Amino acid sequence: MQVAEKLNKGLKRAYKITVSAEEIEKQVDTRLEEVAKTARMPGFRPGKIPVKLLKQTHRSAVMGEILEKTVTDTSQSVLQEKELRPVAQPKIEIDKFDDGSDLEYTMELEVFPKIDIMDFKSIKLEKLKVSPTSDDVEAAVGRIAEGQKTTKPLKGRDIIQKGDIAVINFVGRINGEEFSGGKAEDYPLEIGSGAFIPGFEEQIIGQKVGQKCSVNVDFPENYAKELAGKPVTFEVEIKELQESVPATIDDELAKKLGLKNIEELKTQIKESHEKEFETICRMRLKRQLLDLLDKAHNFDLPEDMSEQEFNNIWQEYDNRRKENPDQVDEGDKDKTDDQLKLEFKEIAERRIKIGLIFAEISKVEDLKVTPEELNKRLQQEIQQEIQRQPGKESEIRDTYTRNPQFAAALESGLLEDKVVDFILEGANLKERVVSPDQFMSEEESEKVEITNQSKTVKKKASKKKKSAAKKKAKTK
Predict the structure, then answer these.
(1) Which CATH class is domain 2-110?
(2) Are the C-beta atoms of 171 and 184 separated by less than 8 Å?
(3) What CATH code would you report for 262-475?
(4) In CATH, what number does 150-245 get?
(5) How many other CB atoms are there within 10 angstroms of residue 337's CB atom?
(6) Contacting residues for 89 by C-beta, under 8 A, at least 6 apart
(7) Each residue's pLDDT tens digit, 364-388
(8) Over the stretch 80-128, which tens digit does the pLDDT of each residue have?
(9) Are 118 and 296 in contact (CB under 8 A)?
(10) Residue 170 β-bridge partners
(11) Residue ranges of the domains in the chain?
């Protein structure tokens, strides 16, 4: 095997690798001798077929197998010999091969950058702990009671007011024609809830039980495609007025939910809220950690890897805005493609940078996900999906267990959690207990700060781009 370096620039490497025809022929003969031991052919006993005859019948298939093995083995040998650590699967391109001639191929790759991992002891972060107050728990109980409310006929008044529940029949027509989903009978509509098309409930107020009326509204522009923006007339019949009867907050309410008493309900609510906030607080802590790691490390990024990540992000966004425009952030709709691409490029580069930092830490500290850990998480995901889609247990299990990409994504997430935990164990963490209201207020303030910082970064980047363009123009 001969190896010639074609490129060594930044993180990019390229090698031309030549394997002699004699070496390939030797491997083919060795493989044919192995095949001869088990091959079957009319007129010959097993294991007694002449290799010369096998060459005529099996050489083509064996040659393909040997070529694939040769490329795999020799490329791995080059990586080991030159102590190369590729960030992704190397690109292999066969340059030349004919039966009986040398094999020549090119291997291109990007290698891991040199990353000097920071001292985790220098990391100072604030870990928030949210403790729900008794008022928070009582408010949650109140919301549960609201969801368990009943209704009863409203007596002493037959004119609809805001807050009433009007039992109605209605038929909707567009240009005089009924449309799918625009008709119902004995529908209980809470006036003022905003459950119907804007303008509908307002026109019901003041109507009288037993009467019929026409309601004219326009479907919103972001409504279903076939109805969006179209004017519609609803013929409405007011059948009855009802009022809400809130559930009494007592042990009976708790028993309806399968609990012993109201105290058990409150305890369960408090524990549930604490668990939810614990998850949110960890996400916040992780976000701050990633920001710190991003700022504390500076190294070259693999160009091809970053470009591929950007293309993936852009393709996903472009598909979403074409197929589901309602899912696109309002702030993005006023931006040009160049502005959006600049933002997505920053996101892609940050993802790659953080990913490489995590990969380096997991390698240096020998952090791995065990098969038991992966299987446990897989089973948890399967159970959660089964709960969301009851009756499809067999189908869900097959989908999750036969999809290697899903398992790889789970393993990546588990390893990331391990790296985060490892870093936090060595970091200087200060815990602070806050109320839910205080936490949400701080979260909102932090979002505003992040948005402002992002705008500043984009302005600076835009100025640099314009400045570079002016310099380029002057040199022309």
Answers:
(1) alpha beta
(2) no
(3) 1.10.3120.10
(4) 3.10.50.40
(5) 9
(6) none
(7) 999 999 999 999 999 999 998 888 8
(8) 999 999 999 999 999 998 888 899 999 999 999 999 999 999 999 999 9
(9) yes
(10) 184, 236
(11) 2-110, 150-245, 262-475
